[in-house]
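In the laboratory, one determines a bound structure by crystallizing the protein with its ligand and collecting diffraction data. In a computational setting the workflow is compressed into a single prediction: the sequence and the ligand go in, and a structural description comes out. We illustrate the idea with arginine.
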Amino acid sequence: MNKLWKGRTDGDMDALADAFNSSISFDQRMYEEDITGSIAHAKMLSKQGIIAKEDCEAIVNGLKGILADLKSGALPVDESAEDIHMFVEAELTKRIGDAGKRLHTARSRNDQVALDFKMYCRTEIDEIVANMKELTQTTADTAAKYKTTIMPGYTHLQRAQPVTFGHHLLAYCQMFLRDISRLLDTKRRLNISPIGSCALAGTTYDTDRMYEAKQLGFYDISLNSMDGVSDRDFAVELLSDIALVMTHLSRLSEEFILWSSWEFHFIELSDKYTTGSSIMPQKKNPDMAELVRGKTGRVYGDLIGLLTVLKGLPLAYNKDMQEDKEGVFDAVDTVNMAIKVFTGMIGTMKVCEENMLNAAKRGFINATDLADYLVRKGMPFRSAYKISGELVNWCIENNHVLENVPLNEYKKRSDLFDDDVYEAIDLKTCVEKRISAGGPGAASIERQLDYVKEKLGEI
Ligand code: ARG
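The predicted complex, in structure-token form:
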């Protein structure tokens, strides 16, 4: 393809170098942003009297035609164009002649690509947030369904204290809501228009940057042209928001993988989200959860990749910055898929309440409550802790659980023990008695469910 930038240079580029230099294979994803941006630019130029009204009309109509043809597939992207910006401009000139050549007045590909990329990220943030909203809703609905389902809560992956499955899932809702708020925060900071910064040092034309910015949904313009073209903070922020979403999903993946094993058997994943083994007929593998856990690694790579690209760049634009896009595209695709798969997986899984309860019964997870029982009767916590530990040992040796230790064994260790001990260490009581704010008790669960509803309602 004939290079639009052929000013000083003569002779053709080496074919390999040309391919190496090209970004159209991936940046064509931003064609709509590019065209929308160019339409706003033409209108600004015309309003300011920099180009004639008739030229503006021809440009706008030409660009609209190109957009429609790209969308319908009638216009294939010419991969020999260097990038999407060059392709659109060349196609425009092909269609409308000289007027097309006026579009690039008072701008550069440097501010153009910053603009397009920002607009792309902004749209994707909305998409990710919408998907996260569904995920959070589905998780909260499932939590509400199992709000009294007792399960062991773990520390060090050792059974620790009783919680409910609802409480466990609501912990993830908190993470998801923070993810959403981080994404929206990124969007707010991102939403400042770089267009009009031109190559790096603005322009001598009397442009109206704010007019152009407003047309494109930005609330302000960048105040420094060198920062305008070289800022990629928004992409780093988006990548790190996505990386954290993936971290949360990866932790939940790990739990799903454990819970769906025979050893736990707390949940059964739907056949829709599992695979079989080609050799072991009994297998039902949690591949989706494993893949989400695995893909978290590549998303971290996308984040570190971009940070590394940027760290040594002098101002302003450098071609290194062309490397900013693929990682973001990859992370965006990956996270959207992961969120959707997870939403489906949570909404269709079977919860084995009996197994959760049985596991809760076997782990002495009411040992703290036993100690608290003695404390309430006046014993200092450390002494109560010791007696409770001795009783757990006795249970292990005699194959008992705390709930069926005979009263005389209790009394042997402290005469503060009475019949009411059994009620105090009943797992149901243990959960219900955890009345502290943010705990697994009924009132806290309702509060958490209300909070999710309120926050999701605000988006
Ligand atoms: N394809 C380039 C990119 O993605 C567009 C900007 C090119 N600017 C330039 N001066 N060569 O960054």
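Strands lie at 150-155, 158-164, 192-193, 220-221, 267-268, 350-351. Keep in mind that any predicted model is a hypothesis to be tested, not a measurement.
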